[in-house]
Structures are given as C-alpha cells and as structure tokens.
C-alpha cells in the first residue's frame, strides 16, 4: 500500500522559528510615523509588549520557541503532509500534488501557530488582557483559545459581515471565554465615525483593527494582538514550512511550486519562507522553488495594489508600512473568504514580491469554490473558502502539467477546514455566489487618499 500521509513525531515540532529577514537581499524598510520618521520602540510599546516587539524587530535567522509554546503546539502539531492522489487521478495530471493540512488545530486553521506564542509572550510580559480583530473568525477563535491556555482575557472586534455569515464562529470564541462584538461598534471613536458616515457598513478588517488598536492604546491594562501582516506573526507561522520540508525529505520529494492563500500573508509566509531559505542559499536538489501567493480578484492587493507607505487600519492609528495596498479605506466586496478581505499586505511579503523573489496571482470567487468542491469530493476534507484560493491555483497548474506532460511536484497549504463555512457552500450550490470584478474605481478613489508621508 502506498503511503499517502507523512507524519512526524511530536519531538519533531520545530525548536526555532525561522526569520526570513536574515536571508533577504535588502533590509526591510522601517514602519514610519505620519511625520515620515521611523516609529520609536516607545510608540510601539503602547500596544505591544517588549517580548513581541523584540521579535518584530529582530534580524536573527533563528529564534528559539519557548518550551511552554512547544508544549501547547503538541495539542495538534506536527500537522500532516498528505499526497492528494485521488485529486491527481481525477484531474488526470502527471503532477504530484501534496498539501500541508493546518485544519487539524483546535480552531481549524493555521492561526493558533501565532495566537499561542502571542498569548504566551504577553503573559510573561505581565499582560492579562488583549484586544484583536477577526475577519473570517479564524484568528479570533484562535486568540480566544490561546487566551484560555495562558489565563488572558480577550475582546474581539469581528467584521460585521462575518459576524452575520458565521454565527458559530462567534459561539466558538465565546466557548473559549472571549467577548465578541460586531464591528463597526459604537464603543470606539473609530467605529462611531464609520457608522456616522456609513450606517449600513458591513465592516472590514481595516476598521476592526482600528477599533481594537484604539481600545488597547487607551487602556493601561490592555495590549493588542494582530493575526497576520506583522513580522512576528509571519515568524511564528514558519513551523508550517519547516515541518513540510522535513516531511518531503522523508519521502525524497521536493516541491517545484508552493501555493498558499493570501490575506495578510502569514500562512503564505509560514509555508513558503523556510523554502525561500533554500532559494536564498542557491536552491536545493538542483531546484529553485516557485512561491505563489493566491488572492481574490475582488481584493487584489498584490496583483493590482500600489507598493507604497500606507496605514494598516482604516482610521490611520497604526504606523505607516511599506506594502502593497489598495488604500487603507478601500472597502472590499462581501466575499465569503472573509480572511482575504484586507486592503494591505505583509511588508516582508510585499518587499519579496517587489524584488521578484516570489509570485502572486488572483482568482475569482466561483472558481475557488469549484476547486474546493473538487477537493472535497476527491480528498474528503471540506476546505475553508480562503484555502480554496490555493487549491484553485494548484489545480490550474496541475492542468497545465496535464497539457504539457510535465510531472511537477506541487505543494499547497490547506490553511483551514470549512466546517463553519457551509452557508457559503450553500450559496455556491444555489448559484448565488458572484464573481466581483476588480473594483477599479473604488481602488482608485481609495488610493487617491493615500497618506502623504512627511506632510504631517
Ligand atoms: C483559513 C484561512 N486561510 C488563510 C487566511 C489568510 O490569512 P493570512 O494571509 O494572514 O494567512 C485566513 C485568514 O483569516 C484563514 O482564516
């Protein structure tokens, strides 16, 4: 019998996180204040503890994972690497398709890989309360779960459209003891401002971040936790790619291409960066692996955005970051991959893309669900709508291999399961899902409001 699943032992859980900064050809550009000067650590300490900030600013290649965090990772790590044999057969492709399955975590996605260390690093810094945002509900549930692990109270601003689309995600967060509010709320200045201008606002990740940051900045007992985008979050996720490399080594394989869905960049970085390290060292087994971030055509940050300094939130509370952006007040259409509705992108991923070291593609909503259903019907797991983006791009490549006869080795990150997203699948089967066109005018209007760095 052929092995389809490559498992590792719990002792194989990585001992260090990999910091891509050490291997980037150019140092990352610093976050700036509105005056155009780099933000000081003191400013950042208003919302993050020094334990997190040290990781955010580190240039060290390897950062030790605390034993308490590895012990919590043991609840679900190492995650399996699987060969999608039945999908290959269904497609009739000579390509080999592998996926790393992050849906085995308690909350059903990759997000606890960073929620757990963030809760732990806040705890050892003496913090007992955190605020955060959530789009799809995956990050919120993960921080709620991680808060329970380390005795930290968690308040979550959940994007209103997801709050309505995914009531059971809210119940999960409450089960793990968190407070959850539909954002925009009338509890913060940012939320009240949005509601005054747009009473029917469906919310966005940018708005929810503003609310969570505002609250953390105004309360001495509270810090803020972010589920993606920032360097330390990407760092934590590199356990995914390190395990995947070990698993592929075990069966004598190495990928030609890696695909991951792209929202803020953390699951892409998680699987891709440890392989980027090989590319930076000149390749492995004679190969340079192509690293592909897959985003929705309705929120095409990497493929249509501008590479410039912009705020990470809607109200301009965060520092300015050099990144691909659609403009901080761009309101993405209400697609079902809620975790991909973000105007900006990780500065590290943005810089690597700008320098041509990684790639990005955009795919439309209905085609992603078609791919997710094909995957469910062949491999069994029903994927999260976000993960369907990677599956779409991977299937497209496998079909190109079918046409050319090439037997490439393809790997994608199955970043989460979709068992709380069945209403989205219902709408797909009912023919109610739309392919939103790239909202060119909305993006242009939003880009026209980009901050003028140094003008303040
Ligand atoms: C299942 C899943 N995959 C992917 C993403 C995309 O986020 P990121 O790019 O930060 O990994 C999300 C975000 O919520 C998610 O929930």
Describe the structure.
By secondary structure, this protein is of the alpha/beta class. The chain has two domains: 5-9 and 77-108 and 238-447, Rossmann fold, CATH 3.40.50.1100; 17-66 and 110-231, Rossmann fold (3-Layer(aba) Sandwich), CATH 3.40.50.1100. 41% of the residues lie in helices and 16% in strands. It contains 19 helices and 15 strands. The protein has helices at residues 41-44, 50-56, 67-73, 85-91, 112-124, 138-150, 160-165, 167-175, 189-197, 205-218, 231-237, 239-250, 266-280, 301-304, 347-354, 365-379, 385-404, 422-429, 440-447; strands at 5-6, 16-18, 62-64, 81-83, 96-101, 129-134, 153-159, 179-183, 223-224, 257-261, 290-296, 306-311, 320-325, 359-363, 409-414. Strands 1-4-5-15-10-11-14 form a seven-stranded mixed β-sheet, with helices on both faces. Strands 8-7-6-9 form a four-stranded parallel β-sheet, sandwiched between helices. Helix 9 packs antiparallel against helix 10. The chain is globular and about 60 Å long. The termini are far apart. The model has no long low-confidence stretch (mean pLDDT 96). Pyridoxal-5'-phosphate binds at residues 109, 135-136, 138-139, 228, 261-268, 339-340, 384, 386-387, 415-416.
